[in-house]
Amino acid sequence: MYKYNEFDEAFVRERNRQFANQVERRIDGTLTEEEFRPLRLMNGLYLQLHAYMLRVAIPYGTLDSAKMRQLAMIADKFDKGYGHFTTRQNIQYNWPKLPEVPAILDALADVEMHALQTSGNTIRNVTSDHFAGAAADEIADPRPVAELLRQWSTDHPEFQFLGRKFKFAVGASEHDRAVLRAHDVAVQIVKNDAGETGYKIFVGGGLGRTPMIGKVLTDFLPAKDLLPYCEAILTVYNTLGRRDNKYKARIKITVHENGIDEYRRLVDEQFALIRPTFSGVDQEMLKEIEGHFPAPTYINAPLDAYDAAYEADPVFRAWADTNLSAHKNDNYAIATISIKAHGETPGDATSEQMRVMADLAEEYAHNELRISHEQNVILPHVHKSNLPAIHARLKEHGLATANFGLISDIIACPGMDYCALATARSIPVAQEIALRFDELKLEHEIGELKLKISGCINACGHHHVGHIGILGLDRAGVENYQITLGGDGSENAAVGERAGPGFAYDELVPAIERLIKGYLEVREDASETFIQAYRRLGSAPFKAALYPDATKKNAA
Q1: Residues 361 and 438 grouped into a single domain
Q2: Which residues of 410-428 are buried (b: 16+ CB within 10 A; e: fewer)?
Q3: What is the pLDDT of residues 20-66, one digit of tens each?
Protein backbone atom coordinates (compact mmCIF):
# COMPACT_ATOMS: atom_id res chain seq x y z
CA MET A 1 0.00 0.00 0.00
CA TYR A 2 1.33 3.43 -0.93
CA LYS A 3 2.73 5.43 2.00
CA TYR A 4 2.96 9.21 2.04
CA ASN A 5 6.37 10.83 1.79
CA GLU A 6 7.21 14.29 3.18
CA PHE A 7 5.87 16.01 0.06
CA ASP A 8 2.56 14.14 0.19
CA GLU A 9 2.09 14.96 3.87
CA ALA A 10 2.91 18.65 3.40
CA PHE A 11 0.76 18.93 0.27
CA VAL A 12 -2.38 17.48 1.87
CA ARG A 13 -1.95 19.46 5.09
CA GLU A 14 -1.53 22.72 3.16
CA ARG A 15 -4.62 22.04 1.06
CA ASN A 16 -6.56 21.35 4.26
CA ARG A 17 -5.32 24.61 5.78
CA GLN A 18 -6.41 26.54 2.69
CA PHE A 19 -9.86 24.97 2.74
CA ALA A 20 -10.30 25.62 6.46
CA ASN A 21 -9.73 29.29 5.70
CA GLN A 22 -12.28 29.15 2.89
CA VAL A 23 -14.85 27.53 5.21
CA GLU A 24 -14.32 30.30 7.76
CA ARG A 25 -14.88 32.91 5.07
CA ARG A 26 -18.08 31.16 3.93
CA ILE A 27 -19.43 31.04 7.48
CA ASP A 28 -18.72 34.71 8.18
CA GLY A 29 -20.25 35.71 4.85
CA THR A 30 -17.07 36.90 3.14
CA LEU A 31 -17.70 34.26 0.48
CA THR A 32 -21.12 33.77 -1.07
CA GLU A 33 -22.38 30.24 -1.76
CA GLU A 34 -21.78 30.87 -5.46
CA GLU A 35 -18.16 31.83 -4.76
CA PHE A 36 -17.70 28.97 -2.29
CA ARG A 37 -19.12 26.28 -4.57
CA PRO A 38 -16.06 25.70 -6.81
CA LEU A 39 -13.78 25.79 -3.76
CA ARG A 40 -15.75 23.18 -1.83
CA LEU A 41 -16.06 20.96 -4.88
CA MET A 42 -12.27 20.92 -5.23
CA ASN A 43 -12.28 19.39 -1.74
CA GLY A 44 -15.03 16.82 -2.23
CA LEU A 45 -17.81 18.75 -0.50
CA TYR A 46 -21.27 18.75 -2.10
CA LEU A 47 -24.54 20.36 -1.05
CA GLN A 48 -27.24 17.69 -1.24
CA LEU A 49 -30.98 17.76 -0.59
CA HIS A 50 -30.78 17.94 3.20
CA ALA A 51 -27.19 18.68 4.14
CA TYR A 52 -23.62 18.82 2.92
CA MET A 53 -22.07 15.58 1.71
CA LEU A 54 -18.33 14.87 1.91
CA ARG A 55 -16.87 12.39 -0.57
CA VAL A 56 -13.59 10.85 0.59
CA ALA A 57 -11.14 9.29 -1.87
CA ILE A 58 -10.14 5.65 -1.50
CA PRO A 59 -7.61 5.50 -4.36
CA TYR A 60 -8.08 2.31 -6.41
CA GLY A 61 -10.22 0.99 -3.55
CA THR A 62 -7.34 0.07 -1.23
CA LEU A 63 -7.52 0.42 2.56
CA ASP A 64 -5.83 -0.97 5.64
CA SER A 65 -7.32 -1.43 9.10
CA ALA A 66 -6.11 1.95 10.41
CA LYS A 67 -7.82 3.77 7.57
CA MET A 68 -11.05 1.82 7.99
CA ARG A 69 -11.10 2.49 11.73
CA GLN A 70 -10.60 6.19 11.08
CA LEU A 71 -13.52 6.17 8.66
CA ALA A 72 -15.59 4.58 11.42
CA MET A 73 -14.48 7.23 13.91
CA ILE A 74 -15.46 10.00 11.50
CA ALA A 75 -18.86 8.38 10.99
CA ASP A 76 -19.47 8.40 14.75
CA LYS A 77 -18.02 11.79 15.63
CA PHE A 78 -19.05 13.88 12.63
CA ASP A 79 -21.94 12.02 10.96
CA LYS A 80 -24.76 9.65 11.94
CA GLY A 81 -22.77 6.49 12.56
CA TYR A 82 -22.45 5.17 9.02
CA GLY A 83 -20.83 5.81 5.65
CA HIS A 84 -21.84 5.04 2.09
CA PHE A 85 -19.40 3.24 -0.23
CA THR A 86 -19.85 4.35 -3.83
CA THR A 87 -19.43 3.04 -7.37
CA ARG A 88 -16.21 5.09 -7.64
CA GLN A 89 -14.57 3.19 -4.74
CA ASN A 90 -15.04 6.24 -2.49
CA ILE A 91 -16.93 6.71 0.77
CA GLN A 92 -19.50 9.43 1.32
CA TYR A 93 -20.69 11.03 4.54
CA ASN A 94 -24.18 12.42 4.13
CA TRP A 95 -24.56 14.61 7.23
CA PRO A 96 -21.35 16.57 8.02
CA LYS A 97 -21.73 20.08 9.44
CA LEU A 98 -19.83 22.71 7.48
CA PRO A 99 -17.83 24.09 10.44
CA GLU A 100 -16.59 20.56 11.20
CA VAL A 101 -15.44 19.63 7.68
CA PRO A 102 -11.88 20.97 8.21
CA ALA A 103 -11.54 18.74 11.28
CA ILE A 104 -12.73 15.76 9.23
CA LEU A 105 -10.11 16.49 6.56
CA ASP A 106 -7.39 16.73 9.23
CA ALA A 107 -8.53 13.40 10.69
CA LEU A 108 -8.28 11.87 7.23
CA ALA A 109 -4.78 13.28 6.77
CA ASP A 110 -3.75 11.60 10.03
CA VAL A 111 -4.13 8.25 8.23
CA GLU A 112 -2.92 9.43 4.81
CA MET A 113 -6.35 10.02 3.29
CA HIS A 114 -8.02 13.03 1.68
CA ALA A 115 -11.01 14.25 -0.35
CA LEU A 116 -9.07 15.96 -3.15
CA GLN A 117 -10.43 15.65 -6.70
CA THR A 118 -13.41 13.56 -5.67
CA SER A 119 -15.55 16.19 -7.37
CA GLY A 120 -15.21 19.06 -9.83
CA ASN A 121 -14.18 19.16 -13.48
CA THR A 122 -10.88 17.45 -12.99
CA ILE A 123 -9.40 13.94 -13.04
CA ARG A 124 -11.32 12.07 -10.34
CA ASN A 125 -10.29 9.20 -8.08
CA VAL A 126 -8.51 6.56 -10.18
CA THR A 127 -10.34 3.24 -9.84
CA SER A 128 -9.15 -0.32 -10.37
CA ASP A 129 -10.02 -3.99 -10.11
CA HIS A 130 -11.21 -4.68 -6.56
CA PHE A 131 -9.33 -8.02 -6.67
CA ALA A 132 -6.08 -6.24 -7.59
CA GLY A 133 -2.94 -7.90 -6.28
CA ALA A 134 -4.78 -11.12 -5.48
CA ALA A 135 -6.68 -12.27 -8.57
CA ALA A 136 -5.58 -15.55 -10.10
CA ASP A 137 -6.07 -14.21 -13.63
CA GLU A 138 -4.21 -10.89 -13.47
CA ILE A 139 -1.03 -10.21 -15.45
CA ALA A 140 0.29 -7.85 -12.78
CA ASP A 141 -0.99 -5.85 -9.85
CA PRO A 142 -2.63 -2.81 -11.50
CA ARG A 143 -2.48 -0.60 -8.40
CA PRO A 144 1.05 0.79 -8.93
CA VAL A 145 -0.08 2.03 -12.36
CA ALA A 146 -3.21 3.51 -10.77
CA GLU A 147 -1.06 5.23 -8.14
CA LEU A 148 1.25 6.61 -10.84
CA LEU A 149 -1.78 8.09 -12.60
CA ARG A 150 -3.08 9.47 -9.31
CA GLN A 151 0.18 11.25 -8.56
CA TRP A 152 0.47 12.59 -12.11
CA SER A 153 -3.09 13.91 -12.16
CA THR A 154 -3.25 15.41 -8.66
CA ASP A 155 -3.22 19.20 -8.96
CA HIS A 156 -1.94 18.94 -12.55
CA PRO A 157 -2.00 22.59 -13.69
CA GLU A 158 -3.48 21.86 -17.13
CA PHE A 159 -6.23 19.53 -15.98
CA GLN A 160 -7.86 21.21 -12.95
CA PHE A 161 -10.52 23.05 -14.96
CA LEU A 162 -11.57 20.64 -17.69
CA GLY A 163 -14.83 20.88 -19.60
CA ARG A 164 -16.26 18.13 -17.37
CA LYS A 165 -15.22 15.55 -14.80
CA PHE A 166 -12.77 12.94 -16.09
CA LYS A 167 -12.47 9.32 -15.00
CA PHE A 168 -9.58 6.83 -15.28
CA ALA A 169 -9.64 3.10 -14.51
CA VAL A 170 -6.89 0.47 -14.56
CA GLY A 171 -7.19 -3.31 -14.90
CA ALA A 172 -4.85 -6.20 -15.52
CA SER A 173 -7.05 -9.20 -16.35
CA GLU A 174 -8.84 -10.35 -19.46
CA HIS A 175 -11.97 -10.56 -17.34
CA ASP A 176 -12.85 -6.94 -16.66
CA ARG A 177 -13.94 -6.31 -13.06
CA ALA A 178 -13.34 -2.54 -13.25
CA VAL A 179 -15.88 -1.57 -15.97
CA LEU A 180 -12.96 -0.26 -18.02
CA ARG A 181 -14.92 0.50 -21.17
CA ALA A 182 -17.30 2.84 -19.35
CA HIS A 183 -14.49 5.27 -18.45
CA ASP A 184 -13.16 8.36 -20.18
CA VAL A 185 -9.77 6.65 -20.34
CA ALA A 186 -9.04 3.06 -19.34
CA VAL A 187 -5.69 1.32 -19.06
CA GLN A 188 -5.52 -2.47 -19.35
CA ILE A 189 -2.20 -4.14 -18.62
CA VAL A 190 -1.50 -6.65 -21.40
CA LYS A 191 1.33 -8.66 -22.94
CA ASN A 192 2.20 -8.59 -26.63
CA ASP A 193 3.24 -11.54 -28.77
CA ALA A 194 6.86 -11.08 -27.67
CA GLY A 195 5.84 -11.42 -24.02
CA GLU A 196 6.47 -7.76 -23.24
CA THR A 197 4.20 -6.00 -20.76
CA GLY A 198 2.43 -2.87 -21.94
CA TYR A 199 -0.98 -1.25 -22.05
CA LYS A 200 -4.14 -1.43 -24.09
CA ILE A 201 -5.77 1.99 -23.99
CA PHE A 202 -9.50 2.65 -24.29
CA VAL A 203 -10.91 6.14 -24.72
CA GLY A 204 -14.34 7.73 -24.91
CA GLY A 205 -16.40 5.52 -22.64
CA GLY A 206 -19.03 6.86 -20.28
CA LEU A 207 -22.59 6.49 -19.09
CA GLY A 208 -24.95 9.33 -18.13
CA ARG A 209 -27.43 10.78 -20.60
CA THR A 210 -25.37 9.63 -23.61
CA PRO A 211 -23.98 6.18 -22.78
CA MET A 212 -21.07 5.00 -24.92
CA ILE A 213 -18.65 2.09 -24.80
CA GLY A 214 -14.98 3.09 -24.93
CA LYS A 215 -13.04 2.53 -28.14
CA VAL A 216 -9.54 1.11 -28.49
CA LEU A 217 -7.05 3.90 -29.01
CA THR A 218 -4.05 1.56 -29.12
CA ASP A 219 -3.78 -2.20 -28.68
CA PHE A 220 -0.29 -2.04 -27.22
CA LEU A 221 1.49 0.91 -25.68
CA PRO A 222 5.02 0.26 -24.36
CA ALA A 223 5.14 0.55 -20.58
CA LYS A 224 7.57 3.46 -20.64
CA ASP A 225 5.15 5.61 -22.63
CA LEU A 226 2.10 5.59 -20.37
CA LEU A 227 2.23 9.04 -18.76
CA PRO A 228 3.22 11.03 -21.87
CA TYR A 229 0.55 9.17 -23.85
CA CYS A 230 -2.12 9.92 -21.24
CA GLU A 231 -1.01 13.53 -21.17
CA ALA A 232 -1.39 13.64 -24.94
CA ILE A 233 -4.93 12.23 -24.64
CA LEU A 234 -5.90 14.89 -22.10
CA THR A 235 -4.20 17.70 -24.01
CA VAL A 236 -6.10 16.86 -27.20
CA TYR A 237 -9.35 16.63 -25.27
CA ASN A 238 -8.70 19.90 -23.47
CA THR A 239 -8.07 21.63 -26.81
CA LEU A 240 -10.71 19.93 -28.96
CA GLY A 241 -13.48 19.20 -26.47
CA ARG A 242 -16.76 21.10 -26.40
CA ARG A 243 -17.22 23.86 -23.82
CA ASP A 244 -20.35 25.45 -25.27
CA ASN A 245 -22.62 22.79 -23.76
CA LYS A 246 -21.77 20.86 -20.57
CA TYR A 247 -23.77 17.87 -21.80
CA LYS A 248 -21.48 17.68 -24.84
CA ALA A 249 -18.25 18.31 -22.95
CA ARG A 250 -17.22 14.73 -22.15
CA ILE A 251 -14.45 13.06 -24.11
CA LYS A 252 -16.91 10.45 -25.39
CA ILE A 253 -18.63 13.22 -27.38
CA THR A 254 -15.30 14.55 -28.63
CA VAL A 255 -14.30 11.09 -29.87
CA HIS A 256 -17.75 10.48 -31.35
CA GLU A 257 -17.85 13.81 -33.22
CA ASN A 258 -14.31 13.56 -34.57
CA GLY A 259 -14.01 9.79 -34.99
CA ILE A 260 -11.55 7.47 -33.28
CA ASP A 261 -9.11 7.55 -36.20
CA GLU A 262 -8.84 11.34 -36.15
CA TYR A 263 -8.57 11.40 -32.38
CA ARG A 264 -5.79 8.80 -32.56
CA ARG A 265 -3.95 10.87 -35.17
CA LEU A 266 -4.10 13.98 -32.97
CA VAL A 267 -2.97 12.04 -29.89
CA ASP A 268 -0.03 10.52 -31.78
CA GLU A 269 0.94 13.98 -33.01
CA GLN A 270 0.81 15.43 -29.51
CA PHE A 271 2.53 12.40 -28.01
CA ALA A 272 5.53 12.91 -30.30
CA LEU A 273 5.92 16.41 -28.85
CA ILE A 274 5.38 15.45 -25.20
CA ARG A 275 7.33 12.21 -24.93
CA PRO A 276 10.85 13.75 -24.98
CA THR A 277 9.97 16.00 -22.04
CA PHE A 278 9.54 13.09 -19.60
CA SER A 279 13.15 11.82 -19.77
CA GLY A 280 12.39 8.66 -17.82
CA VAL A 281 11.26 10.43 -14.64
CA ASP A 282 7.89 8.66 -14.81
CA GLN A 283 9.61 5.26 -14.88
CA GLU A 284 11.64 6.19 -11.82
CA MET A 285 8.38 7.15 -10.10
CA LEU A 286 6.74 3.87 -11.09
CA LYS A 287 9.68 1.80 -9.82
CA GLU A 288 9.51 3.56 -6.47
CA ILE A 289 5.74 3.13 -6.30
CA GLU A 290 5.97 -0.59 -7.07
CA GLY A 291 8.06 -0.99 -3.93
CA HIS A 292 5.02 0.03 -1.89
CA PHE A 293 2.96 -2.92 -3.18
CA PRO A 294 4.80 -6.11 -2.20
CA ALA A 295 2.91 -9.39 -2.23
CA PRO A 296 1.94 -10.54 1.26
CA THR A 297 4.09 -13.09 3.06
CA TYR A 298 1.82 -16.08 2.66
CA ILE A 299 1.34 -18.44 5.55
CA ASN A 300 1.43 -22.22 5.38
CA ALA A 301 -1.28 -23.98 7.34
CA PRO A 302 -3.41 -27.09 6.93
CA LEU A 303 -6.84 -26.68 5.34
CA ASP A 304 -8.61 -29.10 7.68
CA ALA A 305 -10.67 -26.40 9.40
CA TYR A 306 -11.96 -25.10 6.08
CA ASP A 307 -12.74 -28.57 4.73
CA ALA A 308 -14.55 -29.57 7.92
CA ALA A 309 -16.67 -26.42 8.02
CA TYR A 310 -17.50 -26.73 4.33
CA GLU A 311 -18.74 -30.29 4.80
CA ALA A 312 -20.59 -29.80 8.09
CA ASP A 313 -22.13 -26.32 7.85
CA PRO A 314 -24.51 -25.63 4.92
CA VAL A 315 -24.68 -21.91 5.77
CA PHE A 316 -20.91 -21.60 5.58
CA ARG A 317 -20.87 -23.71 2.41
CA ALA A 318 -23.42 -21.43 0.72
CA TRP A 319 -21.33 -18.37 1.65
CA ALA A 320 -18.11 -20.00 0.48
CA ASP A 321 -19.64 -21.06 -2.84
CA THR A 322 -21.04 -17.58 -3.47
CA ASN A 323 -18.70 -15.04 -1.88
CA LEU A 324 -15.25 -16.57 -2.41
CA SER A 325 -13.17 -16.05 -5.56
CA ALA A 326 -9.98 -17.66 -6.87
CA HIS A 327 -6.71 -16.33 -5.47
CA LYS A 328 -3.31 -16.59 -7.17
CA ASN A 329 -2.24 -18.77 -4.21
CA ASP A 330 -4.30 -21.98 -4.18
CA ASN A 331 -4.35 -22.08 -0.37
CA TYR A 332 -5.89 -18.61 -0.23
CA ALA A 333 -9.22 -17.11 -1.29
CA ILE A 334 -10.56 -13.64 -2.02
CA ALA A 335 -13.54 -13.05 0.29
CA THR A 336 -16.25 -10.58 -0.67
CA ILE A 337 -18.06 -9.13 2.34
CA SER A 338 -21.55 -8.23 1.20
CA ILE A 339 -22.82 -5.03 2.79
CA LYS A 340 -26.16 -5.68 1.13
CA ALA A 341 -28.09 -7.78 3.60
CA HIS A 342 -31.63 -8.14 2.26
CA GLY A 343 -33.58 -4.97 2.89
CA GLU A 344 -30.55 -2.83 3.80
CA THR A 345 -29.29 0.18 1.85
CA PRO A 346 -26.75 -0.93 -0.78
CA GLY A 347 -23.32 0.47 0.05
CA ASP A 348 -24.08 1.60 3.61
CA ALA A 349 -21.88 0.31 6.43
CA THR A 350 -22.22 1.25 10.07
CA SER A 351 -19.21 2.34 12.10
CA GLU A 352 -19.45 -0.93 14.04
CA GLN A 353 -19.34 -2.93 10.80
CA MET A 354 -16.35 -0.91 9.61
CA ARG A 355 -14.48 -1.75 12.80
CA VAL A 356 -15.35 -5.43 12.48
CA MET A 357 -14.01 -5.48 8.91
CA ALA A 358 -10.86 -3.64 10.05
CA ASP A 359 -10.33 -6.21 12.82
CA LEU A 360 -10.78 -9.12 10.41
CA ALA A 361 -8.32 -7.61 7.95
CA GLU A 362 -5.74 -7.13 10.68
CA GLU A 363 -6.21 -10.57 12.26
CA TYR A 364 -6.69 -12.76 9.20
CA ALA A 365 -6.08 -10.94 5.90
CA HIS A 366 -2.61 -9.37 5.92
CA ASN A 367 -4.14 -6.03 6.95
CA GLU A 368 -5.64 -5.31 3.52
CA LEU A 369 -9.14 -4.38 2.39
CA ARG A 370 -10.60 -3.29 -0.92
CA ILE A 371 -13.75 -1.35 -1.76
CA SER A 372 -15.45 -2.54 -4.94
CA HIS A 373 -17.32 -0.41 -7.46
CA GLU A 374 -20.15 -2.84 -6.71
CA GLN A 375 -20.35 -1.29 -3.21
CA ASN A 376 -18.98 -4.25 -1.27
CA VAL A 377 -15.83 -4.72 0.82
CA ILE A 378 -13.17 -7.28 -0.07
CA LEU A 379 -10.66 -9.20 2.04
CA PRO A 380 -8.21 -9.91 -0.80
CA HIS A 381 -5.79 -12.29 0.94
CA VAL A 382 -7.37 -14.88 3.24
CA HIS A 383 -5.85 -18.26 4.02
CA LYS A 384 -8.65 -20.79 3.69
CA SER A 385 -8.06 -22.11 7.20
CA ASN A 386 -9.24 -18.74 8.58
CA LEU A 387 -12.46 -18.56 6.60
CA PRO A 388 -14.71 -20.33 9.14
CA ALA A 389 -13.65 -17.90 11.88
CA ILE A 390 -14.15 -14.93 9.54
CA HIS A 391 -17.61 -16.15 8.54
CA ALA A 392 -18.64 -16.61 12.17
CA ARG A 393 -17.66 -13.02 12.99
CA LEU A 394 -19.39 -11.67 9.91
CA LYS A 395 -22.63 -13.44 10.88
CA GLU A 396 -22.62 -11.69 14.25
CA HIS A 397 -22.68 -8.28 12.53
CA GLY A 398 -25.02 -8.75 9.57
CA LEU A 399 -22.18 -9.08 7.08
CA ALA A 400 -22.39 -12.73 6.04
CA THR A 401 -25.08 -12.51 3.37
CA ALA A 402 -24.27 -15.06 0.66
CA ASN A 403 -25.36 -12.96 -2.30
CA PHE A 404 -22.23 -11.74 -4.10
CA GLY A 405 -23.10 -11.46 -7.80
CA LEU A 406 -26.76 -12.43 -7.27
CA ILE A 407 -29.93 -10.44 -7.86
CA SER A 408 -29.91 -8.87 -4.37
CA ASP A 409 -26.30 -7.71 -4.78
CA ILE A 410 -27.70 -4.53 -6.31
CA ILE A 411 -25.75 -1.43 -7.27
CA ALA A 412 -27.84 1.62 -6.42
CA CYS A 413 -27.15 5.34 -6.24
CA PRO A 414 -28.52 7.33 -3.24
CA GLY A 415 -31.38 8.58 -5.42
CA MET A 416 -33.97 11.04 -4.20
CA ASP A 417 -33.39 10.16 -0.55
CA TYR A 418 -30.23 12.28 -0.64
CA CYS A 419 -29.23 13.57 -4.06
CA ALA A 420 -30.31 17.00 -5.31
CA LEU A 421 -30.08 15.80 -8.92
CA ALA A 422 -32.20 12.68 -8.53
CA THR A 423 -35.65 12.42 -10.08
CA ALA A 424 -36.74 9.17 -8.40
CA ARG A 425 -35.94 6.91 -5.47
CA SER A 426 -33.31 4.18 -5.81
CA ILE A 427 -32.74 2.87 -2.29
CA PRO A 428 -36.33 1.72 -1.57
CA VAL A 429 -36.48 0.03 -4.99
CA ALA A 430 -33.30 -1.92 -4.25
CA GLN A 431 -34.54 -2.87 -0.79
CA GLU A 432 -37.90 -4.12 -2.05
CA ILE A 433 -36.39 -6.17 -4.89
CA ALA A 434 -33.89 -7.80 -2.52
CA LEU A 435 -36.57 -8.60 0.04
CA ARG A 436 -38.93 -10.02 -2.57
CA PHE A 437 -36.39 -12.43 -4.05
CA ASP A 438 -35.22 -13.45 -0.60
CA GLU A 439 -38.87 -14.23 0.18
CA LEU A 440 -39.17 -16.26 -3.04
CA LYS A 441 -35.89 -18.11 -2.25
CA LEU A 442 -34.95 -17.87 -5.92
CA GLU A 443 -31.72 -15.91 -6.09
CA HIS A 444 -29.35 -18.86 -5.92
CA GLU A 445 -31.42 -20.67 -8.54
CA ILE A 446 -31.29 -17.57 -10.75
CA GLY A 447 -27.50 -17.42 -10.46
CA GLU A 448 -25.26 -14.58 -11.60
CA LEU A 449 -27.21 -11.45 -12.42
CA LYS A 450 -26.12 -7.81 -12.36
CA LEU A 451 -29.04 -5.54 -11.43
CA LYS A 452 -28.25 -1.82 -11.25
CA ILE A 453 -30.43 1.15 -10.35
CA SER A 454 -30.01 4.88 -11.03
CA GLY A 455 -32.29 7.58 -9.68
CA CYS A 456 -31.67 9.95 -12.56
CA ILE A 457 -30.20 10.20 -16.02
CA ASN A 458 -26.69 10.81 -14.69
CA ALA A 459 -26.43 7.03 -14.17
CA CYS A 460 -24.39 6.92 -10.96
CA GLY A 461 -25.90 3.48 -10.40
CA HIS A 462 -24.45 2.23 -13.72
CA HIS A 463 -27.87 1.04 -14.90
CA HIS A 464 -26.79 1.18 -18.56
CA VAL A 465 -24.38 -1.73 -18.01
CA GLY A 466 -26.63 -3.84 -15.81
CA HIS A 467 -27.90 -7.14 -17.16
CA ILE A 468 -31.10 -5.56 -15.87
CA GLY A 469 -30.95 -1.81 -15.51
CA ILE A 470 -33.52 0.41 -13.81
CA LEU A 471 -33.66 4.17 -14.42
CA GLY A 472 -35.95 6.28 -12.26
CA LEU A 473 -37.43 9.35 -13.93
CA ASP A 474 -39.97 12.05 -13.15
CA ARG A 475 -43.05 11.92 -15.39
CA ALA A 476 -45.28 14.92 -14.61
CA GLY A 477 -44.41 14.72 -10.93
CA VAL A 478 -44.79 10.94 -10.70
CA GLU A 479 -41.92 8.45 -10.43
CA ASN A 480 -41.59 6.26 -13.49
CA TYR A 481 -39.04 3.48 -13.90
CA GLN A 482 -37.58 2.41 -17.24
CA ILE A 483 -36.07 -1.06 -17.54
CA THR A 484 -33.10 -1.80 -19.79
CA LEU A 485 -31.94 -5.28 -20.73
CA GLY A 486 -28.67 -6.79 -21.90
CA GLY A 487 -26.19 -4.28 -20.53
CA ASP A 488 -22.77 -5.52 -19.52
CA GLY A 489 -19.85 -3.91 -17.68
CA SER A 490 -17.36 -6.71 -18.34
CA GLU A 491 -14.96 -7.34 -21.22
CA ASN A 492 -18.11 -7.94 -23.28
CA ALA A 493 -19.24 -4.39 -22.55
CA ALA A 494 -22.62 -3.33 -23.90
CA VAL A 495 -25.21 -0.65 -23.23
CA GLY A 496 -28.58 -2.10 -22.31
CA GLU A 497 -31.60 -1.79 -24.58
CA ARG A 498 -34.70 -0.04 -23.27
CA ALA A 499 -37.39 -2.70 -22.93
CA GLY A 500 -40.43 -0.48 -23.44
CA PRO A 501 -42.74 1.81 -21.43
CA GLY A 502 -41.78 2.57 -17.85
CA PHE A 503 -43.46 1.29 -14.70
CA ALA A 504 -44.98 3.11 -11.76
CA TYR A 505 -43.25 2.60 -8.41
CA ASP A 506 -45.77 0.02 -7.18
CA GLU A 507 -45.62 -1.87 -10.49
CA LEU A 508 -41.85 -2.23 -10.63
CA VAL A 509 -41.15 -5.18 -8.30
CA PRO A 510 -43.92 -7.32 -9.87
CA ALA A 511 -42.47 -6.49 -13.31
CA ILE A 512 -38.98 -7.62 -12.25
CA GLU A 513 -40.50 -10.79 -10.78
CA ARG A 514 -42.27 -11.56 -14.09
CA LEU A 515 -39.05 -10.88 -15.98
CA ILE A 516 -37.02 -13.27 -13.82
CA LYS A 517 -39.62 -16.03 -13.89
CA GLY A 518 -39.77 -15.61 -17.67
CA TYR A 519 -35.99 -16.07 -17.83
CA LEU A 520 -36.17 -19.23 -15.71
CA GLU A 521 -38.70 -20.68 -18.16
CA VAL A 522 -36.61 -20.04 -21.31
CA ARG A 523 -33.06 -20.74 -20.19
CA GLU A 524 -31.46 -23.91 -21.56
CA ASP A 525 -30.42 -25.21 -18.16
CA ALA A 526 -29.34 -24.01 -14.73
CA SER A 527 -25.88 -23.09 -16.01
CA GLU A 528 -27.15 -20.51 -18.52
CA THR A 529 -27.07 -17.08 -16.88
CA PHE A 530 -29.53 -14.30 -17.55
CA ILE A 531 -27.13 -12.40 -19.83
CA GLN A 532 -26.24 -15.57 -21.76
CA ALA A 533 -29.92 -16.36 -22.32
CA TYR A 534 -30.58 -12.78 -23.41
CA ARG A 535 -27.78 -12.92 -25.97
CA ARG A 536 -28.95 -16.28 -27.27
CA LEU A 537 -32.65 -15.46 -27.53
CA GLY A 538 -32.74 -11.72 -28.05
CA SER A 539 -35.14 -9.38 -26.27
CA ALA A 540 -38.50 -10.81 -27.42
CA PRO A 541 -39.18 -13.40 -24.67
CA PHE A 542 -38.01 -10.98 -21.98
CA LYS A 543 -40.24 -8.18 -23.23
CA ALA A 544 -43.12 -10.64 -23.40
CA ALA A 545 -42.60 -11.42 -19.73
CA LEU A 546 -42.45 -7.74 -18.82
CA TYR A 547 -45.50 -6.70 -20.85
CA PRO A 548 -47.90 -9.68 -20.90
CA ASP A 549 -50.94 -7.56 -21.71
CA ALA A 550 -49.26 -6.10 -24.80
CA THR A 551 -48.24 -9.60 -25.90
CA LYS A 552 -51.82 -10.87 -25.57
CA LYS A 553 -53.13 -7.86 -27.46
CA ASN A 554 -50.68 -8.37 -30.32
CA ALA A 555 -51.54 -12.08 -30.46
CA ALA A 556 -55.23 -11.25 -30.73
Answers
A1: no
A2: bbbbbbbbbbeebbbbbbe
A3: 999 999 999 999 999 999 999 999 999 998 999 999 999 999 999 99
Total residues found in the chain within this entry: 556
With beta carbons less than 8 A apart as the criterion, state whether 495 and 213 touch.
yes
Distance CA(323)–CA(335), nearest Å, equals 6
Digit-coded pLDDT (tens) for 468-512: 999 999 999 999 999 999 999 999 999 999 999 999 999 999 999
Q: How far is residue 296's CA from residue 73's CA, in Å, rounded to a whole number?
A: 27
Please state, in angstroms and rounded to a whole number, the distance separating the CA atoms of residues 485 and 497. 5
Q: Can you say whether residue 133 is alpha, beta or left, with left for phi > 0 and alpha for psi between -120 and 50 degrees?
A: left
- Are 376 and 439 contained in the same domain? no
**Domain range for 543:** 411-555
Name the strand (E) or helix (H) holding 67.
helix 65-78
The answer for residues whose C-beta is within 8 angstroms of residue 496's C-beta and 6 or more apart is 463, 464, 465, 466, 467, 468, 469, 484, 485, 486, 487
Measured distance CA(525)–CA(529) in Å, rounded: 9
* E-strand stretches of 94-151: 127-128
SS3 498: strand
Tell me how far apart the alpha carbons of residues 221 and 407 are, in angstroms, rounded to a whole number. Answer: 38
